[in-house]
Design goal:
Elements: E1 4-6, E2 18-21, E3 26-29, E4 35-38, H1 40-51
Antiparallel strand pairs: 1-2, 2-3, 3-4
């Protein structure tokens, strides 16, 4: 069972992004529990694009 971590940018009562990391998959949800699964490489590329 994945361990979900809430974004540190999330305030109290706000819609938040939650992420669960597993060896072969990163799972992301907005709290509605519709889950998007990506590879660790795709997640790293996504995070780099946000920082660019």
């Amino acid at each position: 069972m994945p361990i979900w971590k809430k974004s540190s940018y999330c305030g109290e009562g706000e819609a938040c992004v939650l992420v669960a990391s597993e060896p072969e998959t990163i799972r992301v949800t907005d709290g509605t529990w519709t889950v998007m699964s990506v590879t660790p490489d795709a997640w790293t590329d996504f995070l780099r694009s946000l920082r660019a």
